[in-house]
Amino acid sequence: MKIIGNKNALHTPEFHKKKQIEMRIRIFIISLVLIILIVVPIIILRNSHLLISNIELKGNVVTNSEELQTIIADDLAGNYFWVIPRSDALLYPKQKIIKDLMNKEPRLSMVELKLLNLKNLSVIVAERTPKALYCKDVTDTLNPAGCYFIDSSGFIFSEAPSFSGGVYFVYSSDPVLDTPLRAQYFDTKKFNQLDAFIKSLGDIGLYPKIFILKNDEYHLILSNGGDIMWKATQDLEQVRSNLSSFIEDASFQQNKNNLINIQYIDLRFGNKIFYKYR
């Protein structure tokens, strides 16, 4: 059986009207779905029950709590895309808060954020512990000036009070650092090696007060102003061995005042040691 149809029937006014109604319904449904997908989450995310309103600080002893609170509050203020609050517990800028606290408060060595519930944020911090001092002016070995605290990683993290000179070992440099705060004096491995080396000198009767980095040379200043010097490229164990041999030499040991009167001990030339008394 052969069916013969009139294709012009597809373009009748009734057909077009039906198609327009179907299109409008489809557009309405799609628009409604889009509105639901966009508006409903915004309404939920803007709900006051989801907004962080309380910050609990733990671990800060020296760092000012108000300063930390201000940094956190600034990061939680405002909105994403002018609509969704940054303080929303589900979307708050966790990594930015951590980064800003670490950058703006160099005394902090660690920051951890934890939501206690949807409205309370716990901020746990750890502060750096002073290991030594970095001082700009070491002209007076007993009272250095312009000092900053250094932690065990060699990081300069805070200004130090002027009375700290007799409590901590002092590091310096020539030329001095223009802006010591937040500077890395030495990388952690080298700093710890140097610290261990300096402490070990007490076993051979040497008690230096100040270490000075001068370009490619290292200088240890004794309490009497005497200077022990060697090149930065020299092995620390070898430097200590040479110093020990020099101090324990019979000719040096004959006079107990030799060490008190020493002006310098120069170890920059390998196994050859040059020295001078005052």
What are its keywords?
278 residues; 7 helices; three-stranded mixed beta sheet; alpha/beta; nine-stranded mixed beta sheet
Fold and architecture overview:
There is one protein chain. This protein is α/β, with parallel strands linked by helices and 278 residues long. It has seven helices and 14 strands. The strands form three sheets. Strands 8-7-6-9-10-11-12-13-14 form a nine-stranded mixed sheet. A three-stranded mixed sheet has the order 1-5-4, with helices on one face. Strands 2-3 form a two-stranded antiparallel ribbon. A hairpin with a 3-residue loop joins β2 and β3 (84-85). α2 (65-76) packs antiparallel against α3 (94-104). The longest helix has 33 residues, at 13-45. The protein is elongated, with a radius of gyration of 35 Å. The mean pLDDT is 87.
- Could you name the ranges where pLDDT drops below 50 across 5 or more consecutive residues? none
Written as H for each helix and E for each strand, in order along the chain, the element string is HEHEEHEEEEEEHEEEHHHEE
Structural class: alpha/beta
- Provide the spatial order of strands within the biggest beta sheet: 8-7-6-9-10-11-12-13-14
Number of β-strand runs: 14
What percentage of amino acids are in beta strands?
25-35%
Supply the number of helical segments: 7
What gross morphology would you assign?
A: elongated
Most strands sheet:
9 strands, mixed
* Whole-angstrom Rg: 35 Å
Helical residue percent?
25-40%
How far is the first residue's CA from the last residue's CA? 128 Å
Provide mean pLDDT, rounded.
87
